[in-house]
Amino acid sequence: MSRRKLRRVEIDRTIHSASFGELDAATLYALLKLRTDVFVVEQGDPYPELDGRDTEPGTVHLWMARGSDLIAYLRILDEPDGAARIGRVVVAADARGNGLAGDLMSAALDMIGNRRCVLEAQTPLTQFYARYGFVPTGPEYDEGGIRHIPMARDR
Question: According to a count of CB atoms within 10 Å of the terminal CB, is the N or C end of the chain lower?
């Protein structure tokens, strides 16, 4: 089994946040490109990336950048039952292994506070989310050829 060597890079660890209305066109383009590059192209899952949830009033977009390149991202959604939903957690291929997803998760959970939080984890990442208090809440399922499992964190 070959292991991909992860490159540690010097990164400004500033976490940016905005609602949809606060995003400028260049940032919106960059975050949609990053999500599409990883989820649709790299992972081969041609799903409807533009799901309408980015524009919802309660949605918060969090990201990190290297210069003008957006390299890590996630979004926080408000669910109808009052829970927060973390989704679209993504790190650019050339920036992985630097703890960026963890930094974003910590920032997101700080923002969410004591609210219940849910997510749909790609199955190989369940241990990553377990570090933040998430536990499986249902059976594993296939979405676009990628195994997922629902998880929640009750606080």
Answer: N
